[in-house]
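Re: the 300-residue chain
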Amino acid sequence: MNPSTVSGANRKKKPDWLKSRLPGGEAYFALKSKLEKNGLQTICQNARCPNIHECWNGNQATFLIMGNVCTRDCGFCAVASGRPGPLDEAEGRRLLRMAEVMNLGYAVITSVTRDDLADKGSSHFAAVIRTLKHERPQLKIEVLVPDFDGNSRFLDRVLDAGPEVLAHNVETVPSLYERVNRRADAFEHSLRILEHSKKRGWISKTGLMVGLGETAAEIEALFARLRDRGVDVLTIGQYLQPDTRSLPVSRYYTPGEFSALKESALGHGFIGVESGPFVRSSYHAEPLYRTVTHALSRIQ
């Protein structure tokens, strides 16, 4: 079905498979209290993730550093945009305490985009990773970074701090970039980040939203371009309009279509793929990391 043929009424009504559980449960509220006590933000809350019930009850959260106000105003995102506050030099120590309280073996860390900073926040990102690695060397770290305007020097600072996985989301197909990300040049910046991390030997990972108006041919072409740049891991999820200011949903993909997208992505050579209506970039991050590292060890 061509997204342009979907009626306005259908865009507004969510299908049955997109009904998620309201967050709650003893483990959920215990983790919420610990995060608040340590003064930490999560993308789970700020981006209104539909998996928050499952992940928090499973003792998993994606930490959000450098504040919860982004300097960009993308058409798909629920995170607040505006003028961020100053960086918190103690953030790495507070995140370390939280990792110890949660007894984490694997942590996913992301950030808002900080175009207000000369180095786009890359030094702060690296400092947080180094604090965690120095005090908790057994901890595996996946970082989901902004595009740093495609600057490889900024990315190198983060990589040199020693995370296990470098993730950066392309979000959508190239033809929709200007409408979705407000910046037509951002797609090439994203490709540079992913390609550079792979060339330096890191596991590279990206995420894609569907339901914004892309075509099947564009998705297949994007799969090929990402693999050509060496991307190892891919997550595919349904775009859900977070508020009335955000872009509307063009259409909802069925669970069967997500299964077909996964098979197609694996056929293009991705080593690990998560695909489903509620899949987000850090969904099942640790088991996906284990799958990929096992596969890579067999290849090598």
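The chain is about 40% helix and 15% strand.
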